[in-house]
2-dehydropantoate 2-reductase (Gaetbulibacter aestuarii), 306 residues
Amino acid sequence: MNIVVFGAGGVGGYFGAKLVQAGFDVTFIARGAHLEAIKKNGLQIKSVQGDFTVHPKATDDLAKVGTPDLVILGVKSWQVTEVAEKLKPIIGKDTMVLPLQNGADNADKLRAVLPEHNALAGLCKIVSMVEAPGVIRHITFEPEIVFGEYNNEKTKRVKQLKSVFDEAGFKNTLSDDIHLDIWKKFLFICTISGIGALTRAVFGDMRSHEGIRKIIKDTADEMVSIANAKGVGLSPKDVAMVIGIIDQMDYNTTASMQRDVMEGKPSELENFNGYIVKQGKLLGIETPTNAFIYHCLLPQEEKARA
């Protein structure tokens, strides 16, 4: 299988490296110092599950790639539409494009630009980041990809893709309800990322503060209302599950969106709390907690994007 990994950051870098290690034909689309370091020294993975280094193909020129069987998107959710446009020239009729971004509507963004048949739906579970050019650090969580056809059909191609991921040796799940699984992940990441960006606090500090715990739960409750209005079956049990996960995570954990905001970078704010606020307006559902977080962070987001 000819695989392109667009974005060699914490997500694309880790899962792409595992595919390279298993012997698959993988090309990374990267840029800048990270690209040069990968070309010169390989891609180094520092992981709680064991360190390793691979020496993959890497380029910043899609014209050199050819037509892939699979494209794994390792970019941020706010970049999906732009990247989909760039992918158009290399996408064949049988190419699968798998989005792994945080957020609820990444597959929809792909389907708005590419032929709908090309777009799978998916998510990943991993806490990882670029530690230095050419170096990915995996901090916690057993890395997992959850994926499926947009309509949940168990097609031949997604069964084949599961075999590829199995051979690569990382946990993966061919979902029975990919949209529910996406929203469950979204529920977790959105409840903690925005308030983390506002407080500049690690998970341990936030979860031990009564007032912030209430904000986390209120954020999640509003998300459940939006999801259910859209036909996604989230429940209060899912809120309890998410809070339980936050309680179990390493004390010093931070979310990727939180880190981006703290570093003055463009973030996924629009795709997280902003998405919930906008969907609330469309659906006639009040989302005061998400709105507070969104509007408090929006001036810094606008400054970063300027």
